[in-house]
Specification:
The chain has 3 domains: 93 residues, MurE/MurF, N-terminal domain (Udp-n-acetylmuramoylalanyl-d-glutamate--2,6- Diaminopimelate Ligase, Chain: A, domain 1, 3-Layer(aba) Sandwich); 239 residues, UDP-N-acetylmuramoyl-L-alanine:D-glutamate ligase (3-Layer(aba) Sandwich); 151 residues, Alpha-Beta Complex (Protein-Tyrosine Phosphatase, Chain A). Helices cover 31% and strands 23% of the residues. By secondary structure, it is of the alpha/beta class. The protein is globular and about 75 Å long. The protein is built from 16 helices and 24 strands.
């Protein structure tokens, strides 16, 4: 591909050199430099790509995109830009043939709910016969392969590469989680989303190498709505009005109302989806929620995931998918059977009690989860969790206190002890636990801890394996060991002659 074709939509301040060379590769990782490539100098936290310009010249790169042009230019064409990360997004889009233009793209942002909502969208669309790719916190699904995720939102080059693979595999749509970091670092630069979605907002990702304060965090989230054709907002979130400020898109929304019958105006509002008649569902160990909707789509829906946050996640998905013209039956079937790895994921071990896995790995997430489960009036809530090594002790104190306050029994165990002694971490968790007087046991080995929970389960218990979620490893003394809680539960059940089907 000619350099001029790649640079067509890149915002250039200066081009030094008159040639228009053929480009053999688009490179932003200096370890992949090769003769004839276009090298984009990206400034990272630990490494500045500009420091690799001499190496790029030595390896005969054909062109270099940079923010600072060196004195020694060799034979390469230099393209000076204000923001090389943003330039990379536009260059990558051109390099891969603008694949986003061949897909219906959905970008979901917000503090919570992105992962579950994205899987709901994918399931609904695929039930409707619309093959859909996914990019998110757990994995990337290109339609032909699953790739474990390293970041919620990958680098822009990878986003475009995945989009191109989705197109090649016959996908018609792509849904992705869009993090504040991804927006701040221009990882979704180079294309326009068909739909941008705001789920909710609360303080998160604030600190060194992230966002300097909450205003910066919110500002970055808002960028999505300058880069989409239609913006969809959770109208019940207190920050929704601020998130809509400056939006350059058409606006739709969803909300929850507490009334018996919808009014005529609600039914007529085709730009808003409203949920009402919300009821908790507890059947044979399955915790879920049912509700009705009006406005954009009228449904009697049931979700096999618990709590009000599941209602909001479902509303997110329904609002998006109503724009695709999907049938009601496709929506209802997907919501009733949705399953997201490590997100309030039920393992059907017994009809007498509920066993679930969840990614709640900090006090805020754990408190939200346990309060939701308490609404179902279980016999007991049994919470199993640990805390990571080489991390803040405050998290350990806080999680211990939350579980002690909101659980009937806590099983303290290991969760990525890393370089620390698991018992030292457990003792820190106990500091918070002892403030509450809550009942607990300590079992460092996670499999033994899960076995204890199953062996001592009582009728109508809800047992939560918290913290690992979708992770399938345990980090001990710098070594990553395979450990998937689903496999542990299967093994424990097999050892006890219990038949399971997951």
């Amino acid at each position: 591909m000619k350099l001029s074709e790649i640079l067509e939509e890149v915002n250039k301040e200066q081009v030094i050199g008159n040639a228009d060379p053929d480009i053999t590769a688009l490179v932003y990782d200096s370890r992949k430099l090769e003769q004839g490539c276009l090298f984009v100098c990206v400034k990272g936290v630990k490494f500045d790509g500009h420091s690799a310009i001499p190496e790029a010249l030595e390896k005969k790169a054909a062109a270099i995109i940079c923010e600072e042009v060196p004195e020694e230019k060799g034979e390469a064409v230099f393209i000076k830009v204000k923001d090389s990360r943003r330039a990379l997004g536009f260059a990558a889009a051109a390099w891969f043939g603008h694949p986003a233009k061949k897909l219906k793209t959905v970008g979901i942002t917000g503090t919570k709910g992105k992962t579950t909502s994205s899987y709901m969208v994918k399931d609904i669309l695929e039930n409707a016969g619309i093959k859909t790719g996914l990019i998110g916190t757990i994995e990337i699904d290109t339609g032909s392969r699953l790739i474990p995720a390293l970041n919620t939102t990958p680098e822009s080059y990878l986003v475009q590469e995945y989009f191109a693979e989705m197109v090649e595999n016959g996908c018609q749509a792509a849904v992705m989680e869009v993090s504040s970091q991804g927006l701040m670092l221009s990882r979704v630069a180079g294309f326009e989303f068909d739909y941008g979605i705001f789920t909710n907002l609360s303080p998160d990702h604030i600190g060194k190498n992230e966002h300097k304060d909450f205003d910066d965090y919110m500002h970055c989230k808002k960028l999505l709505f300058k880069q989409c054709r239609t913006g969809i907002f959770n109208l019940d979130d207190p920050y929704a009005p601020e998130m809509m400020e400056g939006a350059l898109c058409a606006v739709e929304g969803f909300c929850v109302k507490n009334y018996s019958d919808p009014g005529i105006s609600e039914q007529a509002d085709t730009h808003k989806l409203t949920a009402y008649h919300i009821n908790l569902v507890n059947s044979d160990g399955m915790l879920g929620v049912s509700f009705r909707t009006c406005g954009m789509m009228e449904l009697d829906a049931e979700v096999c995931l618990p709590g009000m946050f599941s209602v909001y996640n479902a509303l997110t998905a329904i609002t998006i998918c109503s724009n695709f013209g999907v049938k009601k039956d496709d929506v209802l079937k997907a919501l009733k059977n949705v399953k997201v790895k490590g997100r309030i994921e039920r393992l059907p071990v017994s009809k007498d009690y509920t066993l679930m896995i969840d990614y709640a790995h900090n006090a805020m997430a754990l408190e939200s989860l346990l309060k939701t489960l308490r609404e179902y009036e279980p016999g007991r809530i049994v919470t199993l969790f640990g805390c990571g090594g080489n991390r803040s002790k405050e998290r350990r104190f806080e999680m211990g206190e939350v579980s002690g306050r909101l659980s009937d029994m806590t099983i303290i165990t290991s969760d990525n002890p890393r370089d620390e002694d698991p018992m030292d971490i457990i003792k820190d968790i106990e500091v918070g636990m002892k403030k509450t007087g809550g009942e607990y046991v300590t079992i460092p080995d996670r499999k033994d801890a899960i076995a204890y929970a199953i062996d001592n389960a009582r009728k109508d218990d809800v047992i939560v394996l918290a913290g690992k979620g979708h992770e399938d490893y345990q980090v001990i003394k710098g070594v990553k060991h395979h450990m998937d809680e689903r496999e542990l539960v299967r093994d424990i059940c097999a050892e006890r002659g219990m038949k399971v089907s997951f």
